[in-house]
């Protein structure tokens, strides 16, 4: 409902930020008959889940920031009537041996014998494929147990552990640094790196980091859909945002762009940059907790205590190629190698060395990176002329490039250094320099761009370029009744297990809930932060 409140219109819910999670929350709440207003600072909604044409005169629509989908539950797609298509990649990954790039491991879901042969060629160990498969099967059981819980109130850790049914694996993922499980499960440095990279996407940690942030990142990367598969959104990531925007508007939500929020009061009043004030029974925050802290503290009081350390740790490079580059490994077709995740300089030893270098303030050499080619799975993102020419996109995601490496530095210079490091790393495993196959725009500009954590902070308002808005949390409540995000009382029921805590969206302020990647089960293009916040909000509003 919407009703007048003095000089203001009182909405049921105002959502600060218009990212994909905010759109999910808006659609659910509006479907339930609630009045919802979404306020987005930029001129478009979608946040990091957008498609853009970055090169003038080039008909290539790339997923500029987020690029794959794993954690988006089918239930959200059904509930909101989303018209999206996600395609499964039959190639899981290709990993050339950095010391001998003439050999590599190609993991093909449709060719078990070929996969086993590539393990043997690259590692010299005929048993390594079986060890990797055994670990994958055990992790698969975790995915099947955990993923269905993500759209429900947070389960208790003990219940999840019982559902997993593998205490040794539970301890390896939840209680001890991930590096121990990796080393115990597979034998070669190369394959250990393949496993470990799932714990380092956007996460700055070593394999044996006592914080276990690499473990939490690993869990989220292997549970999506109950299988851990990462799917390609047909039409690019912007197609997901378009479907969510349409669902929210269709349900009756109001979306306002170019509407920058400069303050949020704990009692539900939101102030915009032009001085307009908007009142709501509840405020949902699609911005990160660190940004929310600043918005809540702009009244001159003390800012809320930082709930989590925030620091992004990646560089993303988007490329358009005339053709795929040649490999040193003549046993593998480049179309297969780049169709899945292409691992570059990501042995376990290299990953830990890169972490140590970055922690000491240097860009790692070589820079660990992961690459994939969207257009091999979904050619629709390219215009017909580019497709007929054989052009392909390439996305490189560099690890261990923490925000501290670019903080206080000239953005152009630091971006150029990261790009050079990424190119050098990739070139070291190719049969030709990547520069030789870069497509050029009509004005001669190479179709190549790097996006650092500083770019994410400046363009998307993402504090320190942290794609998760802070270290990820376990997707359950601990035995100690961990509230996971603040005190839950007041309008939320006055107890530590009120709706906001049970759904993992609590803040220190009872009338302000998290609905973005900073929610307890946020992170990735999942919609979970939005769905969980909407469920908690409906419980509160129905009282």
Describe this structure in words.
- With 543 residues, the protein is an alpha/beta fold.
- It has 2 domains: 178 residues, 3-Layer(bba) Sandwich (FAD/NAD(P)-binding domain), CATH 3.50.50.60; 294 residues, Polyamine Oxidase, Chain A, domain 2 (Alpha-Beta Complex).
- It is 34% helix and 17% strand.
- The strands form 4 sheets. Strands 1, 2, 3, 10, 11, 12, 13 and 19 form an 8-stranded mixed sheet that branches. Strands 8-7-15-16-17-14-18 form a 7-stranded mixed sheet, sandwiched between helices. The chain has a two-stranded antiparallel sheet with strand order 4-5.
- Helix 1 packs parallel to helix 10 and helix 1 runs parallel beside helix 19.
Q: How would you sum up this structure in a few lines?
A:
The chain has 543 residues and is α/β, with parallel strands linked by helices. The protein has helices at residues 20-31, 74-80, 112-123, 128-146, 157-164, 167-175, 178-185, 189-196, 213-223, 237-251, 289-296, 334-337, 348-359, 374-377, 384-389, 411-427, 453-460, 499-502, 528-541, and strands at 2-5, 8-16, 36-39, 51-52, 62-63, 86-87, 91-97, 100-108, 232-233, 254-256, 261-264, 269-272, 277-285, 315-321, 341-344, 369-372, 392-398, 448-451, 512-514.
